[in-house]
């Protein structure tokens, strides 16, 4: 029995805990009020133009949020509501320019975050670049994120080591 339903451009499966609304202009009012989104644990809105994330308040039990290639800015990140159950946040390929604002707001909105990916944002040094200071820049970036979001166990494509946590906490005030 297929229990898949579609609300405008969004699909959900009553048998799973995943909701995907990729490749749309997302507005939380598009969601049908007859469906209880409280039970959604994974939300993927990749490739969706997003200016405001406040509608995510309707998903209080999210465990994973994927917002890759959504043209997100620091202004949009500042609208991220408190998501106390969120453990994984993927923000790859967006327009995040201020590492301080990004980390501070993520820390306050997602106090239990364990996995964060910020690849291909201006705040994340490009590992494929051939710049001279790449290794140093990426290490500084990792140390900063680890210090500001101490719950992280995984940043971008690699685990956060105990040595990194100790180093980040000693060098950044």
UniProtKB/TrEMBL annotation:
InterPro entries: LRMDA, LRR_dom_sf. This is C10orf11 homolog. It comes from Caligus clemensi (Sea louse).
């Amino acid at each position: 029995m297929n229990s898949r339903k579609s609300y405008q451009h969004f699909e959900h499966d009553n048998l799973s805990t995943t909701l995907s609304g990729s490749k749309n202009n997302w507005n939380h009012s598009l969601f049908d009020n007859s469906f209880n989104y409280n039970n959604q644990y994974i939300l993927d809105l990749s490739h969706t133009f997003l200016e405001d994330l406040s509608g995510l308040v309707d998903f209080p039990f999210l465990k994973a949020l994927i917002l890759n290639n959504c043209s997100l800015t620091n202004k949009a990140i500042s609208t991220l509501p408190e998501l106390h159950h969120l453990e994984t946040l993927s923000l790859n390929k967006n327009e995040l320019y201020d590492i301080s604002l990004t980390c501070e707001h993520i820390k306050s909105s997602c106090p239990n975050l364990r996995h964060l990916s910020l690849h291909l944002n201006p705040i994340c040094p490009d590992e494929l670049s051939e710049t001279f200071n790449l290794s140093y820049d990426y290490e500084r970036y990792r140390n900063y994120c680890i210090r500001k979001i101490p719950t992280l166990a995984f940043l971008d494509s690699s685990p956060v080591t105990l040595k990194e946590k100790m180093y980040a906490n000693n060098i950044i005030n």
